[in-house]
Amino acid sequence: MIDTENFEIGMTAVYPAHGVADVVGLETKHVGGQALRFYHLQVRGSGLKIIVPIDKAGENGMRPLAGPDEIDKMFELLRDHDVPADRQTWNRRYRNFMEKIRTGSLHEVAEVYRDLSLLRSQKTLSHGEREMLRTARDLLVGELAVARETPEDEVAEQLDSMFKN
User: Fold this and answer.
1) Are strands 12-15 and 49-53 parallel, antiparallel or unpaired?
2) What gap in Å lies between CA 106 and CA 61, rounded to an integer?
């Protein structure tokens, strides 16, 4: 389990399904006689503000940005196009992919991106699948751009080039 109690104001984190966020505040509130501590996050790009209980941050999937080793493993996963054909119905596939995105894991999101990109080369994706592909791509691009200090358009081009026929 990742230690999520050491984020400080000004640090960058990844929050599931929202992507890269800045820690903009720390707060203690007294609820039912207990002191509870919270992170205040602001999601990059959307400006969405999220309040996360510090003691639940790890359970919720909040984590530090991916490091070079994690990014290398993610690219290995994306290069592996030898995955079994998905025979699930679109709605079951959609639910499974949503669960992976909600984990906040770089590798789970990369799997969704890879699998939907490969599926797109075989058939027309449903509207929901196209939206999920866009979401997975946006999450990957956002995190990789910040982690590698690279412009988002370069990262997007690199990801997209892995699935051109």
Assistant:
1) unpaired
2) 11
Q: From the centroid of its chain, how far is CA 11?
A: 17
CA angle 49, 44, 150 (to 5 degrees): 165
36-20-52 Cα angle (round to 5): 10
Structural domains present in the chain: 11-64 (2.40.10.170), 68-162 (1.20.58.1290)
Q: For the segment 68-102, what is each residue's pLDDT rounded down to a tens digit? A: 999 999 999 999 988 777 677 778 888 999 999 99
- Confidence (pTM): 0.89
Q: In what order do the strands lie in the sheet with 34-43?
A: 49-53, 34-43, 19-31, 12-15, 63-64
Nearest alpha carbon to residue 110 among 89, 150, 138: 138
What CA–CA distance (Å, rounded) separates 69 from 66? 8
